[in-house]
Amino acid sequence: MTNKQIASVLIVDDDVQYCEMLANFLQEQGFHVVVAHDGSSAQELCVRQTFSCIVLDVNMPTVNGATFLQLLRAFSFTPVIMCSGISDESEMVRFFTLGADDYVVKPIRIHELTARIKVAIRRGAPEEPAYTDDVGLYVDPRTRTVVTNGRSVKLTPSEFHILTVLMTKSNQLVTRRDLVESLYPNVEYTGGFRILDVHISNIRSKLTSTNGPASDIITSVYGVGYVYNGVKPRV
Q: How confident is the model at residue 171, as a pLDDT?
């Protein structure tokens, strides 16, 4: 395997001992690992190079996790997994709204985190062909391009994945459970459905255009799931 084929993970956390432990484990799993102990250093790294996934602590010096995430999303779609000692749902929702792809509560189970990193990387590098539909939405998984009625839209990897799942099952009910399982395959997910609802809300908001309200694009079946209200996509 060449260096170009090795997935790279950036760990951003001010806990030096934790970073060393996690970096050693991920390297044993075949990842290339880079560590930053504050948000400012992580920013500089992300400007100079591209990573397959970022594991980001919430509380850090110089630039905290929330600010770093907002700045990153201005130019990068790299999958981001937030790590925090706070399990409060509103805190999780806040970071998903800012553009996070996953949220893990400390103390972290290292095998679970590794599995989530692998899932995030796979989700961040899709190989499906581009497709469009008759309601003015164009999606290209290879370049993560989303265009609605001529307007470019930026989605996080998780938001993009959810949209493509719903589009490929156009006019069909997709349950919340099925969406969560597609987001976290082979991972025991215990985070509930609120985070998924936030992702859906973000997608609706970003796809809103002058040609119609966002609620016309994806509708909710209360307590069950969601339906994409478009024509079946054409490859």
A: 85
pLDDT tens for each residue of 136-181: 788 887 677 888 877 888 888 888 889 988 988 888 999 998 998 8
CATH code (residue 165): 1.10.10.10
Q: 218-227: long-range contacts at Cβ-Cβ below 8 A with a sequence spacing of 24 or more?
A: 218/166, 221/173, 224/173, 224/175, 224/176, 225/173, 225/174, 225/175, 225/176, 225/177, 225/178, 225/179, 226/166, 226/173, 226/174, 226/176, 226/179, 226/200, 227/166, 227/171, 227/172, 227/173, 227/174
| b/e sequence 135-173, b meaning 16+ C-beta within 10 Å | bebbbebeebebebeeeebbbbbbbbbbbbbbbeeeeee
Count Cβ atoms below 10 Å from residue 111 Cβ, excluding itself. 10
Does some domain include residue 233?
no
* Domain boundary pick from 124, 142, 177: 124
Q: Is the peptide bond before 107 cis (omega within 30 degrees of 0)?
A: yes
- Write down the pTM of the prediction: 0.66
* Domain final position from 73, 99, 124: 124
Residue with tokens 């591209």: 50
Query: Are 160 and 115 part of one and the same domain?
Result: no
